[in-house]
UniProtKB/TrEMBL annotation:
Subunit structure: Heterotetramer of 2 PyrK and 2 PyrD type B subunits.
Record-given protein name: Dihydroorotate dehydrogenase B (NAD(+)), electron transfer subunit
Binding site for [2Fe-2S] cluster: C214, C219, C222, C238
Keywords of this entry: 2Fe-2S, Electron transport, FAD, Flavoprotein, Iron, Iron-sulfur, Metal-binding, Pyrimidine biosynthesis, Transport
GO MF terms held by the record: 2 iron, 2 sulfur cluster binding; electron transfer activity; flavin adenine dinucleotide binding; metal ion binding; oxidoreductase activity
Pathway as given in its UniProt record: Pyrimidine metabolism; UMP biosynthesis via de novo pathway; orotate from (S)-dihydroorotate (NAD(+) route): step 1/1
Signal peptide annotation: none
Record: residues binding FAD: R52, P53, I54, S55, V67, Y68, Q69, G74, T75
Chain's role: Responsible for channeling the electrons from the oxidation of dihydroorotate from the FMN redox center in the PyrD type B subunit to the ultimate electron acceptor NAD(+).
Gene3D superfamilies to which the protein is assigned, alphabetical: Dihydroorotate dehydrogenase, electron transfer subunit (2.10.240.10), Nucleotide-binding domain of ferredoxin-NADP reductase (FNR) module (3.40.50.80), Translation factors (2.40.30.10)
Family: Belongs to the PyrK family.
CC cofactor note: Binds 1 FAD per subunit.
Length: 253
C-alpha cells in the first residue's frame, strides 16, 4: 500500500480565518485518508520551483485541511488560489506524533504551530490543549478544539485574550495532570517546553521546522543535530521528523 504520493487535490475552499491566516480544504480520496497527525503536505505553488511544507491540520472524509500564514511569495500565491482549482500536493510526508491509548496528553501549539495539534487532539482521549498566540487577532481554531472534546486553555503574550502569559506558565501548573506532552511552534517555545518536561520527568515530542526543498530526505537542506546513544548526528526534519523526542534534539544556543 502507498504511504505517500504526488497527486492533484481539488480545492474546496480557501478562507481567511484570522489576520494573515488562511484555512484551505483540498480533496483527494486516496491520499487524504493516509495522513497521520503531525505529518505534512508539500504543496506545489504555481511559478515556484520548491514546494511549501504545510502541516496536516485535519483529515476527514477525503479532505485535508491546511491552515497557513502568509509569510512570503509562496504562501501569498496560495492564499489567492480559488475554489475548483487543482492543487498539486505531495503527501503525507514525515513521521508524525506517536499517540498511545490510555495516556493523557498535553498538546501545545504556539502561533502557526497550533494547526497540527487539532488533528492530534482528535486522536487523543480527553487531551489538555494549550494554545498560545501573540495577540487576539491571531487566535485560530478554538471552536474546533472544543468540538474535538479537548480541555482548552488560551494564552496571549499581550493579555488581549485568555490568560496573559506563555504556554509554559500553564504547562508548569498542569504538567502533573498529564502523562506526555506534544508540541509545535517557535523554537524558543519548544526549548522552554522541553526544559519543563525534563524537570518534571515527562516524555515530550516536539515538531521542528526547517527550510525544506525535496521534503523526502534526498537534498540535506533540512538537517538538524540530534543526540542518539551519546553521539551527535545529523538527521532530516522532513524524513526522520518533523517530530523528534525532545530529549534528543540539540538546540542551538
Ligand atoms: C514540517 C513543516 C510544517 C509546516 N507547517 C506549517 C503550517 O501548518 N502552517 C504554516 O503557516 N506554515 C507552516 N510551515 C512553514 C511554511 O512552510 C513556510 O511559512 C512557507 O514555506 C513559507 O513560504 P513562502 O514562499 O511564503 O515564504 P518565503 O520566505 O518566500 O519562502 C522561500 C523558501 O523558503 C522556504 N521556507 C520559508 N520559511 C520556511 C519555514 N518556516 N519552514 C520551511 N520552509 C520555509 C519556503 O518553502 C521556500 O522554499 C511549516 C514548515 C515545516 C517545515
Ligand atoms: S528537504 Fe530535502 S532532505 Fe529534507
Amino acid at each position: 500500500m502507498k504511504k505517500y504520493d504526488v497527486q492533484k487535490f481539488e480545492l474546496l475552499s480557501n478562507e481567511q480565518i484570522a489576520d494573515g491566516i488562511f484555512d484551505m480544504r483540498v480533496k483527494n480520496d486516496e491520499l487524504a485518508p493516509l495522513a497521520k497527525c503531525g505529518q505534512f503536505a508539500h504543496v506545489y505553488v504555481p511559478s515556484k520551483t520548491l514546494r511549501r511544507p504545510i502541516s496536516v491540520c485535519d483529515s476527514e472524509n477525503g479532505v485535508l485541511r491546511l491552515v497557513y500564514q502568509v509569510k512570503g511569495e509562496g504562501t501569498k500565491i496560495m492564499s489567492e488560489m480559488k475554489k475548483g482549482e487543482s492543487v498539486d500536493i505531495l503527501a503525507p510526508l514525515g513521521n508524525g506524533f506517536k499517540i498511545e491509548k490510555g495516556k493523557r496528553y498535553c498538546l501545545i501549539g504556539g502561533g502557526i504551530g497550533v494547526p497540527p495539534m487539532l488533528y492530534t487532539a482528535k486522536q487523543c482521549e480527553n487531551p489538555l490543549v494549550i494554545t498560545g498566540f501573540r495577540n487576539k487577532d491571531l487566535i485560530i481554531l478554538q471552536d474546533d478544539f472544543k468540538k474535538a472534546g479537548a480541555e482548552l486553555v488560551l494564552t496571549t503574550d499581550d493579555g488581549s485574550a485568555g490568560i496573559h502569559g506563555f504556554v509554559t506558565d500553564v504547562l508548569k501548573e498542569k504538567i502533573s495532570e498529564v502523562d506526555e506532552v506534544c508540541a509545535c511552534g517557535p523554537t524558543p517555545m519548544l526549548k522552554a517546553i522541553a526544559d519543563v518536561c525534563k524537570e518534571a520527568g515527562k516524555p515530550c515530542q516536539i515538531s521542528l521546522e526547517e527550510r525544506m526543498a525535496c521534503g523526502m530526505g534526498a537534498c540535506l537542506v533540512c538537517a538538524v543535530k540530534v543526540r542518539k546513544n551519546g553521539e551527535e548526528i545529523m538527521q532530516h526534519v522532513c524524513k526522520n521528523g518533523p517530530v523528534f523526542n525532545a530529549e534528543e534534539v540539540v538546540f542551538n544556543g
